[in-house]
C-alpha cells in the first residue's frame, strides 16, 4: 500500500496531537508522551493496513499513551478501566485553564472524548474511531465527562 | 443540560514548539530515511540518507521535482518511515559546501545505492570513478559498465541518477564534445563543469 511519508503526517497532525496531549496529561508531560506516541506510530507505520484515517490512528495511539503515562506515574500496575481517577495536575502556564485542568482528572475515555469534542470540534463518529467504540458510547463518554466536569467546577 | 457548560478554546493553551523526533527515532532504529533541504549554487537540493548512507539528492524547483514528489518516491521505494532530520545530513552538507567552495574534489560520505540496479547501477558506479575536472563519454561509460554498444541505455541510466553531483554524471559528455543532457537541466551541468574547471 502507498503510504504518505511519515513527515507528512507530522506536518498535518503533529501540532494537534501535541495539543491533545497537553490537554490530557499536562504541559510538563506532553512532550514525553508525544515522543512515545510518534515513535510507536513510526514503529507500526509500514505495516499499517488502512490509511483512510491516519489522523484518527495517531489520536488513538496518543490516547493509549496518555493512559500508559498516567499508570507509569503511579508506579504500580493497575487494571484497565474507566472509573480510575487521574491525579489532578496543576499547571500555572495553562491560561484560563481551570476547566481544562479539571479535564485531566476525568477517566481516560471521558477525558479523550471531551478533549476531542471541545478541543478539536470532533464529531461523535471521529471520537468513536479514536476510542474504538460505538458512536453511542462516544456520545455517552462526552456526556458523562461533562457531567463530572460540571460537578468538579461547581464544587 | 450539559450544553450550558462551555470549555474555553483549547488553542489558548499554546503548547509551544513540537518536540524533535529524529534523534530518538534513529536511536530506536525507526528512522529509515532522514531528509533535509539545502541551498546550493545550483539551486535548492533535497538530501536524503538511510542508515546505510546517502540515498538521494534531488534538484528542487525550478526545473526539478517538488519536495512532495521526491518524498513520495522515497516512501514507495525505500520506506515510509521518513522524517525531516537535518542533523542527520550534516556530513553530506559539509562535503557539498566544500565541493561548491572548490575545496573538495572527492566525496567521502557513504552511499546507499539501492535506488539503482543492474546495468544502471554499473553505469553509475563507473561514473563515480571519473575524477574531478575530467570528463568521459556515454560510450566509454557504457563500455566500463560492460556493454560498449549500450550508450543510449547508459544515457538513460545517467538521466535517472538518484545521486547527482556526488555521482558526477555531469562529467559524462557526448563523444564529439557536446555537453549532452542533464536531469537537472543543462544550465546546472554547465555550472558544475565550470566549477571543476576553476570557473565556479
Order of helices and strands of chain B: HEEEHEHHEHHEH
What is the helix content of chain B?
25-40%
Number of domains of chain B: 2
Q: What's the CATH topology name of chain A?
A: Butyryl-CoA Dehydrogenase, subunit A, domain 3
- Give the radius of gyration of chain B: 21 Å
**pLDDT average of chain B, as an integer?**
91
Please give the most extensive interface between any two protein chains, plus how many residues each contributes. A-B, 43 and 34 residues
Count of distinct strands of chain B: 6
Q: Which stretches of chain A of 5+ consecutive residues score pLDDT under 50?
A: 84-96
Q: Give the biggest beta sheet of chain A.
A: none
Percentage of β-strand residues of chain A: under 5%
Biggest sheet overview of chain B: 4 strands, mixed
CATH class descriptor of chain A: Mainly Alpha
Strand order of the largest sheet of chain B: 3-2-1-4
- What average pLDDT do the residues of chain A reach? 86
Order of helices and strands of chain A: HHHHHHH
> What structural category characterises the helix and strand content of chain B?
alpha/beta
CATH homologous group name of the largest domain in chain B: Methylated DNA-protein cysteine methyltransferase domain
Portion in strands of chain B: 5-15%
Number of strands of chain A: 0
Number of helices of chain A: 7
